[in-house]
Design goal:
This protein has 250 residues and is of the alpha+beta class. It contains seven helices and eleven strands. The strands form three sheets. It has a five-stranded mixed β-sheet, sandwiched between helices.
Length: 250
């Protein structure tokens, strides 16, 4: 079962009254939510970077030419292919444990997973290298946990609102606005990461083709109150400068 399908099952449970809330990894939550539901709380973000797992060769710098990397992420493939056009990719699906097992069995020689997810299930010892953001910009929402509720369910929201982290909330508002305006689908070769620095939000974004020939970079800053508009501005720049054609080709 894909993460996206699992999220939909949880959302249905809330709408049917079988649950009052659902806890999601925000990178798995689409930008358009079902009618009647909202993300009410977002906790403080864990490290959003991606982790390289390669027990045989170690760091990505030592990874051999033509090596096989297992991933189902278009974002990871497009960025890594841009910087290492010699690499080959094989689709690797399943939960984290399944992907690591397939790596250990030799189906692929390396894989890339979210550092935050590995930490949350106590598998951080499998990490070979934390990939720098210059090489691998994270997925939108990566590292952040959100809580979804029914709109207007004040009793439930009052019980969880103390968990909300305002900086993470504002950063994800910008990131998710970017996602929504690009297309709204979390399975795109799109990366986006926002930070709060010197009183402003700074949103960095990338989108690329799967052949590694084109990788479009852009970043822009704005005041916190303009977080949604910041995401819109960055999406407009990307679409007007090549992203639209990249998406058509995919």
């Amino acid at each position: 079962m894909s993460n996206k399908i699992f999220v939909k099952d949880l959302e249905k449970a809330i709408l049917d009254g079988m649950a009052d809330l659902a806890v999601h990894s925000m990178k798995d939550v689409t930008s358009i939510l079902p009618e009647g539901l909202e993300i009410s709380v977002i906790a403080e973000r864990e490290d959003p970077r991606d982790a390289w797992i390669c027990p045989k060769f170690g760091s990505i710098e030592k990874f051999p030419k033509g090596g096989i990397v297992g991933t189902s992420s278009l974002r990871r493939q497009s960025q890594l292919k841009y910087f290492r056009p010699d690499l080959n990719f094989q689709v690797l699906r399943g939960n984290v444990q399944t992907r690591i097992r397939k790596l250990d069995e030799g189906e692929v020689q390396a894989t890339i997973l979210a550092e935050a997810g590995l930490k949350r299930i106590n598998l951080q010892d499998r990490i070979t290298q934390i990939l720098p953001m210059d090489l691998m910009l994270p997925a939108i929402g990566q590292g952040a946990i959100g809580i979804q509720t029914r709109i207007g369910d004040e009793r439930t929201i009052d019980g969880i609102k103390h968990i909300n982290d305002r900086i993470t909330w504002d950063c994800l508002t910008a990131e998710r606005s970017l996602l929504k305006n690009i297309e709204g689908n979390c399975q795109l070769p799109l990366a986006g990461y926002c930070i709060f620095s010197k009183g402003k939000l700074l949103l960095k974004a990338r989108i690329g083709d799967l052949e590694g020939k084109n990788l479009l970079f852009y970043e822009e800053s704005a005041n916190v109150e303009n977080a949604k508009k910041l995401g819109e501005n960055v999406s407009h720049y990307l679409l007007e400068n090549g992203a639209e054609q990249i998406l058509k080709n995919i």
